[in-house]
Amino acid sequence: MTAGRRKRVSICDYGAGNVRSVAVAFRRLGVEVVDDPLGADLCVLPGVGSASSAMAGLRQRGLDEALRERFQLGRPMLGICLGLQLALDESEEDGGVPGLGLLPGRAVRLRGGRVPRIGWSTVEPGGDAFYFAHSYAALTPAATAHSEGVVAEARLRSFVGVQFHPEKSGAAGARFLERCLSHA
Amino acid sequence: MPLPRLIPCLDVDHGRVVKGVRFAALRDVGDPGELGAAYSDAGADELVFLDVSATTEGRPLLLDLVARVADRLAIPFTVGGGIRTVADAAALLRAGADKVAVNTAALERPALIGELAAALGSQAVVLAIDASGGEVHARAGTKPTGRRATDWAREGEAAGAGEILLTSIDADGTREGYDLALTAAVADVVSVPVIASGGAGEASHIAAVLELAQAALLASIVHESPARLGALRAELLSRGVLLRDAA
């Protein structure tokens, strides 16, 4: 933002998920929300719902290829919740769904505790609490933060994926999105 | 387990937050976006908006309300009341809601739960159960169904509900404490999170139910003012209840 130009963020809308809340959260930070997955300063892959319908929605709109191309170009990307899981090699949801393969690893069903895992939970390192709502979680060597033993964040090259919902995580979520923008 | 949640519940009618005694003498108390933001600032972990307008002409206003709330809030919120189809629910989620709560419509047509879960994911589907004497009641608690709350909760979970919002009709409005026996019975038979509702009068009631349920719904206890929520949070923290640091 210091460059004087408004950052442009593209949010992948593939027919499912709470795109509006993600857009609202970014607009609060002074960002221009655009439909330009390749050219934007940051491309966001949001997501709630099932892995198979989400992957089908991405393919239908050609977004799977656009996301792979963006990753190859090393341009900043943020995956949220299912958006993190879709970036992996595969998900065991719906009997097995191939992912985008940006990050090594797979999404597996949560075991133990109450599932879906819903609520605020502290993420380490950092110590802030974020809002989670999920039944599957990433297993990946790219994990960079955890919450109660669950992968909360994974990073590889220009991709950052979080299992929590920064757009629904109050002040801590806004601070997280601001950090993403500062690197975009 | 994630941290225990405090969830203020606001009744809405024709796009406005209203207050009334048992759906009678509804009084306009404010804008949903402004009140929602005030509760969020006071430390609410989530919010529930319950549409009490039984009429169909209030429905488009509900979508507009959800969009306005989503513009103001940065915490999750659930919308309930009158949702009968996947299309109803999907429109509310696209407008910015995180979850929908279904009650009577699911009792009348249990397949609705599975349809919602398949389309939106279980994490977006809350099964609201009103119970008295352990028996489920439909139509805002007025119609006994002959079904046990524990059986219906288990059935709802199997069909794909991601949370159970359990209201004790017996405790509701008494301010004498949550129905701990009902809450324990339902929490024991399901593995999805349980939100306990009905009967909160003071912090000790909330602390007690959060030993059994994953979240506590707060209605009349916080309706005088959002500041009351802040005071309750402080008291719960001093009692050792681990709430999130909302700063």
Nearest-integer average pLDDT of chain B: 92
C-alpha termini separation of chain B: 21 Å
Identify the CATH homologous superfamily of chain B: Aldolase class I
* Arrangement of strands in the largest sheet of chain B: 1-4-5-6-7-10-11-12
Provide mean pLDDT of chain A, rounded.
94
Question: How many structural domains does the protein architecture of chain B include?
Answer: 1
CATH class of chain B: Alpha Beta
CATH-defined topology of chain B = TIM Barrel
CATH superfamily grouping of chain A: Class I glutamine amidotransferase (GATase) domain
SSE run of chain B: EEEHEHEHEHHEEEHEHEHEHH
The residue ranges of chain B in which pLDDT falls below 50 over 5 or more consecutive positions are none
| Alpha-beta content class of chain A | alpha/beta
Structure class of chain B: alpha/beta
Number of helices of chain A: 5
- What does the largest sheet of chain A look like? 7 strands, mixed
Number of strands of chain A: 13
Proper CATH architecture of chain A: 3-Layer(aba) Sandwich
Largest interface: A-B, 36 and 36 residues
The portion of residues assigned to helices of chain B is 25-40%
Instruction: Report the uncertain regions of chain A.
Output: none
Characterize the structure shown.
The complex is a heterodimer of chains A (184) and B (247). Chain A has 184 residues and is of the alpha/beta class. Chain A has one domain: Class I glutamine amidotransferase (GATase) domain (Rossmann fold, 3-Layer(aba) Sandwich), CATH 3.40.50. Chain A has helices spanning 19-28, 51-60, 63-72, 82-86, 170-182, and strands at 8-11, 32-34, 42-45, 77-80, 90-91, 97-98, 106-109, 117-122, 129-134, 136-139, 143-147, 150-156, 159-162. Chain A is globular and about 50 Å long. Chain B is α/β, with parallel strands linked by helices and 247 residues long. Chain B has one domain: Aldolase class I (TIM Barrel, Alpha-Beta Barrel). Chain B has helices at 32-41, 59-72, 86-94, 104-108, 111-120, 149-159, 180-189, 203-209, 220-223, 226-238, and strands spanning 5-13, 16-21, 24-30, 47-51, 77-80, 99-102, 125-132, 135-138, 143-148, 163-168, 194-197, 215-218. In chain B, helix 8 links the parallel strand 11 and strand 12. In chain B, helix 1 (32-41) runs parallel beside helix 2 and helix 8 (203-209) packs across helix 10 (226-238). The radius of gyration of chain B is 16 Å and the shape is globular. The model of chain B has no long low-confidence stretch (mean pLDDT 92). The interface between A and B is large, with 36 and 36 residues.
